[in-house]
Amino acid sequence: xxxxxxxxxxxxxxxxxxxxxxxxxxxxxxxxxxxxxxxxxxxxxxxxxxxxxxxxxxxxxxxxxxxxxxxxxxxxxxxxxxxxxxxxxxxxxxxxxxxxxxxxxxxxxxxxxxxxxxxxxxxxxxxxxxxxxxxxxxxxxxxxxxxxxxxxxx
Length: 154
Hints:
- By secondary structure, this protein is an alpha+beta fold.
- The chain contains 4 helices and 7 strands; from the N terminus they run ββααββββααβ.
- Strands 4-5-6-3-7 form a 5-stranded antiparallel β-sheet. Strands 1-2 form a two-stranded antiparallel ribbon.
- A hairpin with a 2-residue loop joins strand 1 (4-10) and strand 2.
- It is elongated, with a radius of gyration of 20 Å.
- The termini are far apart.
């Protein structure tokens, strides 16, 4: 039987994986941006099929603080408000439980038109908006963020 081999670049080094069968999933944007290469190249039919797929705008935001003020025993912090609207930073994920040293970082995801809008605005405005939402949840316990990082897949 023939084996399927894939080479992945991990930390700048090529790593080869081989098996009789392989299923690999990755974001559609990886294909569109040329981050994935197939050898042998895909057939025209498959290439056309991939070209018809699209990915919604997606924005990941990490906002870090000097310490935690949120509930540390939860996996997610949800928020819906009639005034600010449903799309206005509706969910935060505390990352501390997932990383060594429990860093005081919250992660937020935005998609669609909201993700596009926020990706194009000044990060300082984004930081202020997030603090506004967090203060509606936690009040005066919310401290000023020390950093914000945006990763857009738009």
